[in-house]
Amino acid sequence: MEREAITIRFPSDLLAKAKKLKEGSESFNDLVVEAVEHEVHRRRAWAAHQRVIARSETMKTRTGIQESSTNLIHSLRKGEERRE
What span, in angstroms and rounded, lies between the C-alpha atoms of 39 and 28? Predict the structure, then answer.
């Protein structure tokens, strides 16, 4: 992975806490990169979740609240209404 150097200004107390957290030979740079990767992943997941909620609301508006399929699934598992 290609890397690019940037300057980041951390609050002093956060920087001290982060330095205490890094493990043994782990570089501070690696700790920050891992934290940013984690946050990017979290934010993408949150955005996807919001899109699912929006899509669900759109479908609910368009078709109304659908009946639960739980009972149908249970009956199919038991072999009822099965085509042979």
Answer: 17
Each residue's pLDDT tens digit, 28-64: 888 899 999 999 999 999 999 999 999 999 999 999 8
Global model pTM greater than 0.85: no
Q: Give the 3-state secondary structure of the chain.
A: CCCCCCCCCCCHHHHHHHHHHCCCCCCHHHHHHHHHHHHHHHHHHHHHHHHHHHHHHHHHHHHCCCCCCHHHHHHHHHCCCCCC
